[in-house]
Amino acid sequence: MVFILLILVLWCRRSATVADWYAQHVYPVLSKGLSWLASPFSFSITEILIVLLVVLFIVRVVRIFTAKERHGRRVWRAVRLLLWIYVWFYAAWGINYFRSDLFARTESVPMPYEEAEFHEFLAEFSEQLNTNWCDVEEIDREAVEKHVKTWYASLPPETGLARPYSWQHPKRLTFNRIYSAVGVLGYIGPFFDEMHVNHDVLPLEYPFIYAHEYSHVLGVSNEAEANFWAFENCRHSEDPAIRYSAWYMLLTYTAGNIRSLLDEEAYQAWRETLRPEVYADLDFMQSHWQSLRWAWLSRMQHRIYDVFLRSNRIADGTKNYGQVLRLVLTLSDLHDHEEPEEHNEPEAHGQKG
Fold first, then answer.
1. Are residues 66 and 180 in the same domain?
2. Which of 100, 112, 219, 273 has the most CB atoms at less than 10 Å from its CB?
3. 185-223 as b/e, with b when 16 or more CB fall inside 10 Å?
4. What is the pLDDT along the chain (353 residues), one digit of tens a residue?
5. Which structural domain, as residue segments, surrounds residue 81?
6. Residue 43: closest CA among 175, 241, 165
7. Are 322 and 253 in contact (CB under 8 A)?
8. Are 55 and 143 in a shared domain?
9. How does DSSP assign 153-179, residue by residue?
10. Which residues contact 331 (CB under 8 A, 6 or more apart)?
11. Residue 265 burial (CB < 10 Å; 0-12/13-18/19+)?
12. How far apart, in whole angstroms, are the C-alpha atoms of residue 6 and residue 19?
């Protein structure tokens, strides 16, 4: 059985058409069922499962080297366990890595770089950041959940996202301190399609991170696309704190891209258009996470996750987070686009949030 499922997974890895079919017809059913099975538990089933699987695998490896009987059968059991974990990960969620990107699903063409249009966007960016700024000392998490799910439910089918359900809530994390130490703000638990938001996330960050992680539950694997949906979702809220979260978090993910597209003078001139309170928020956020981070472990996690993303057809690795800027410039309705002419597209540089 495991070999049949393994063949199907490998087929999806090689064919975007098959992966798209999975994402549209199989994943929504699996996600609905798996998340419902895990919903009675407030804690993360994914965390517990991973710990149990690691312990089980270590026990089987130890038995291979300590047993006096033939090793072949024990080796096979250890290998079979790894195969089942691999198949479960990809069948339950991971195949979404190999589906068509958002441009293909919406039949859109990435906008080429137009200097005038980019500066128009930067002006809008500054205005929205300044206008929507508010002092977010606390956040109504129930209001965030209601808005995020309602907005995602309103999206048309061609976006390729699964349907939200009322029982899908962020799970309590047992090892939250470790996630803060490596700078992980949230993640999806692929074995039961559980969403997790780091308990140390600041109120200002929470709406965007919630919307980002929930998009993963709805079948989004690409980190730039998850950032795009989080931005679009939050900026359409009537709650000023949620709207500010959209623009503020977009700034944290795209500052490197913006700087790469402007000369130093132009970049500094744009920075000066932002109100001082925005920079105060940035400084506070940086000091907050810096106080929790373990540098050596964070670097190790970053490298491992970068390799993982690249092995799953996210060519930019962890830089993919910052590629949201291209999606916003092409697909957002912030301003009208003129018909593009042939231009060379700039290389984008992202940074991990």
1. no
2. 219
3. bbbbbbbbbbbbbbebbbbbbbbbbbbbbbbbbbbbbbb
4. 677 878 888 888 888 899 999 999 999 999 999 999 999 999 999 999 999 998 988 888 887 777 666 667 777 777 888 888 888 988 899 999 999 999 889 888 888 778 888 889 999 999 999 999 999 999 999 999 999 999 999 999 889 999 999 999 999 999 999 999 999 999 999 999 999 999 999 999 999 999 999 999 999 999 999 999 999 999 999 999 999 999 999 999 998 888 888 889 999 999 999 999 999 999 999 999 999 999 888 888 888 888 877 877 676 666 666 688 889 988 887 655 444 444 444 343 333 44
5. 2-98
6. 175
7. yes
8. no
9. HTS-GGG------TT--BPBPTTHHHH
10. 102, 106, 108, 228
11. exposed
12. 14
User: Which residue type occupies 243?
Assistant: R
The structure tokens listed for 27 are: 């994943």
Q: Which amino acid is at 193?
A: D
